[in-house]
Amino acid sequence: MARGNSHGALDDLDRRLMEVLQADGRKPFTEIAAAFGVPESTIRARYKGLVDRGALKVIAVADPLKVGYPLMAMIGVRCTPAALLTTAKELEALPEVSYCVVVAGAYDLLIEVVCEDNEALLTFLTERLRSIAGVLETETFVYLRILKQNYEWGTTPT
User: Fold this and answer.
1) Are residues 77 and 93 in the same domain?
2) Residue 28: inside a domain, yes or no?
3) Using one digit for the tens of pLDDT, what is the confidence trace for 41-98?
4) What is the spatial distance between Cα 134 and Cα 86, in angstroms, rounded to a whole number?
5) Cα 101 from Cα 108, distance rounded (Å)
6) Buried b (16+ CB within 10 A) or exposed e, 63-85
7) Residue 100 and residue 123 in one domain
8) What confidence tens digit (pLDDT) does each residue in 96-121 have?
9) pTM of this structure
10) What is the extent of the structural domain holding 132?
Protein backbone atom coordinates (compact mmCIF):
# COMPACT_ATOMS: atom_id res chain seq x y z
CA MET A 1 0.00 0.00 0.00
CA ALA A 2 1.45 3.40 -0.95
CA ARG A 3 2.14 5.96 1.76
CA GLY A 4 0.20 9.21 1.88
CA ASN A 5 2.16 12.30 0.96
CA SER A 6 2.22 15.95 1.92
CA HIS A 7 1.29 17.16 -1.58
CA GLY A 8 -2.40 16.43 -1.24
CA ALA A 9 -2.58 13.16 -3.18
CA LEU A 10 -4.56 10.49 -1.37
CA ASP A 11 -3.48 6.87 -1.42
CA ASP A 12 -5.78 3.90 -0.84
CA LEU A 13 -5.36 3.90 2.95
CA ASP A 14 -6.09 7.64 3.17
CA ARG A 15 -9.24 7.20 1.07
CA ARG A 16 -10.46 4.24 3.10
CA LEU A 17 -9.83 6.13 6.36
CA MET A 18 -11.74 9.16 5.06
CA GLU A 19 -14.66 6.98 3.93
CA VAL A 20 -14.95 5.41 7.39
CA LEU A 21 -14.75 8.79 9.14
CA GLN A 22 -17.30 10.34 6.77
CA ALA A 23 -19.75 7.63 7.82
CA ASP A 24 -18.83 7.82 11.53
CA GLY A 25 -16.46 10.57 12.61
CA ARG A 26 -16.28 9.13 16.14
CA LYS A 27 -15.27 5.59 15.19
CA PRO A 28 -12.33 4.53 17.39
CA PHE A 29 -8.95 4.26 15.68
CA THR A 30 -8.54 0.80 17.24
CA GLU A 31 -11.61 -0.45 15.35
CA ILE A 32 -10.51 1.15 12.09
CA ALA A 33 -7.01 -0.31 12.44
CA ALA A 34 -8.40 -3.79 13.13
CA ALA A 35 -10.72 -3.59 10.12
CA PHE A 36 -7.86 -2.42 7.87
CA GLY A 37 -5.30 -4.86 9.27
CA VAL A 38 -2.80 -2.15 10.21
CA PRO A 39 -1.47 -0.89 13.55
CA GLU A 40 -3.47 1.79 15.37
CA SER A 41 -0.38 4.03 15.21
CA THR A 42 -0.65 3.97 11.40
CA ILE A 43 -4.27 5.12 11.50
CA ARG A 44 -3.45 7.80 14.08
CA ALA A 45 -0.53 9.07 11.96
CA ARG A 46 -2.59 9.07 8.76
CA TYR A 47 -5.43 10.92 10.49
CA LYS A 48 -3.02 13.53 11.86
CA GLY A 49 -1.42 13.98 8.43
CA LEU A 50 -4.80 14.45 6.73
CA VAL A 51 -5.91 16.97 9.36
CA ASP A 52 -2.58 18.84 9.40
CA ARG A 53 -2.61 19.40 5.64
CA GLY A 54 -6.27 20.43 5.63
CA ALA A 55 -7.55 17.42 3.68
CA LEU A 56 -9.83 16.25 6.51
CA LYS A 57 -11.85 17.91 9.22
CA VAL A 58 -14.13 15.86 11.43
CA ILE A 59 -17.12 17.89 12.64
CA ALA A 60 -20.72 17.45 13.70
CA VAL A 61 -23.13 18.44 10.93
CA ALA A 62 -26.50 19.69 12.13
CA ASP A 63 -29.51 19.33 9.86
CA PRO A 64 -30.99 22.86 9.70
CA LEU A 65 -34.45 21.48 8.95
CA LYS A 66 -34.44 19.51 12.20
CA VAL A 67 -33.04 22.19 14.51
CA GLY A 68 -35.42 25.08 13.94
CA TYR A 69 -34.43 26.40 10.50
CA PRO A 70 -36.99 24.89 8.13
CA LEU A 71 -36.49 27.45 5.37
CA MET A 72 -33.46 27.20 3.12
CA ALA A 73 -32.73 29.06 -0.10
CA MET A 74 -30.02 29.48 -2.71
CA ILE A 75 -29.51 33.08 -3.79
CA GLY A 76 -27.76 34.18 -6.95
CA VAL A 77 -25.96 37.49 -6.44
CA ARG A 78 -24.65 39.86 -9.11
CA CYS A 79 -21.96 42.22 -7.83
CA THR A 80 -20.06 45.24 -9.02
CA PRO A 81 -16.91 43.75 -10.58
CA ALA A 82 -14.52 45.76 -8.42
CA ALA A 83 -16.30 44.68 -5.23
CA LEU A 84 -16.68 40.95 -5.87
CA LEU A 85 -14.33 39.67 -3.18
CA THR A 86 -15.22 42.29 -0.58
CA THR A 87 -18.91 41.56 -1.17
CA ALA A 88 -18.23 37.83 -0.78
CA LYS A 89 -16.41 38.48 2.52
CA GLU A 90 -19.34 40.52 3.83
CA LEU A 91 -21.79 37.78 2.83
CA GLU A 92 -19.65 35.07 4.45
CA ALA A 93 -19.89 36.94 7.75
CA LEU A 94 -23.70 36.89 7.87
CA PRO A 95 -25.00 34.21 10.25
CA GLU A 96 -27.76 33.10 7.87
CA VAL A 97 -25.24 32.27 5.13
CA SER A 98 -24.14 28.62 5.26
CA TYR A 99 -22.42 28.49 1.86
CA CYS A 100 -20.82 31.12 -0.36
CA VAL A 101 -19.03 30.52 -3.67
CA VAL A 102 -17.72 32.63 -6.54
CA VAL A 103 -19.17 31.24 -9.77
CA ALA A 104 -19.07 31.73 -13.53
CA GLY A 105 -22.36 32.28 -15.30
CA ALA A 106 -25.41 34.46 -14.77
CA TYR A 107 -24.36 35.33 -11.20
CA ASP A 108 -21.08 36.27 -9.57
CA LEU A 109 -21.84 34.55 -6.27
CA LEU A 110 -24.15 31.86 -4.99
CA ILE A 111 -25.06 31.83 -1.33
CA GLU A 112 -27.13 29.34 0.61
CA VAL A 113 -29.08 30.69 3.56
CA VAL A 114 -30.95 29.02 6.41
CA CYS A 115 -33.82 30.87 8.08
CA GLU A 116 -36.46 30.24 10.73
CA ASP A 117 -39.37 31.25 8.50
CA ASN A 118 -40.53 33.46 5.61
CA GLU A 119 -40.31 36.61 7.73
CA ALA A 120 -36.69 35.88 8.60
CA LEU A 121 -35.89 35.35 4.91
CA LEU A 122 -37.68 38.58 3.98
CA THR A 123 -35.70 40.48 6.63
CA PHE A 124 -32.46 38.93 5.38
CA LEU A 125 -33.21 39.88 1.77
CA THR A 126 -34.50 43.40 2.35
CA GLU A 127 -32.44 44.60 5.30
CA ARG A 128 -29.19 42.67 5.23
CA LEU A 129 -28.39 41.39 1.75
CA ARG A 130 -29.49 44.41 -0.26
CA SER A 131 -27.76 46.82 2.12
CA ILE A 132 -24.33 45.48 1.11
CA ALA A 133 -22.78 48.07 -1.19
CA GLY A 134 -21.42 45.69 -3.85
CA VAL A 135 -24.73 43.84 -4.40
CA LEU A 136 -26.38 44.87 -7.69
CA GLU A 137 -29.07 42.22 -8.11
CA THR A 138 -30.27 39.01 -6.49
CA GLU A 139 -32.49 36.08 -7.37
CA THR A 140 -33.78 33.79 -4.64
CA PHE A 141 -34.58 30.10 -5.06
CA VAL A 142 -36.44 28.75 -2.01
CA TYR A 143 -35.89 25.03 -1.42
CA LEU A 144 -39.18 23.15 -1.48
CA ARG A 145 -37.65 19.73 -0.88
CA ILE A 146 -34.05 18.61 -0.52
CA LEU A 147 -33.69 15.44 -2.55
CA LYS A 148 -30.01 14.80 -1.91
CA GLN A 149 -27.49 16.24 0.51
CA ASN A 150 -24.31 14.21 0.67
CA TYR A 151 -21.19 14.68 2.78
CA GLU A 152 -19.66 11.31 1.83
CA TRP A 153 -17.76 12.26 -1.32
CA GLY A 154 -14.30 12.89 -2.61
CA THR A 155 -12.53 9.71 -1.56
CA THR A 156 -13.00 7.55 -4.64
CA PRO A 157 -10.07 7.81 -7.06
CA THR A 158 -10.90 9.33 -10.43
Assistant:
1) yes
2) yes
3) 999 999 999 999 999 988 887 777 777 778 999 999 999 999 999 999 999 999 999 9
4) 8
5) 8
6) ebeeeebebbbebbbbbeeebbe
7) yes
8) 999 999 999 999 999 999 999 999 99
9) 0.73
10) 64-142
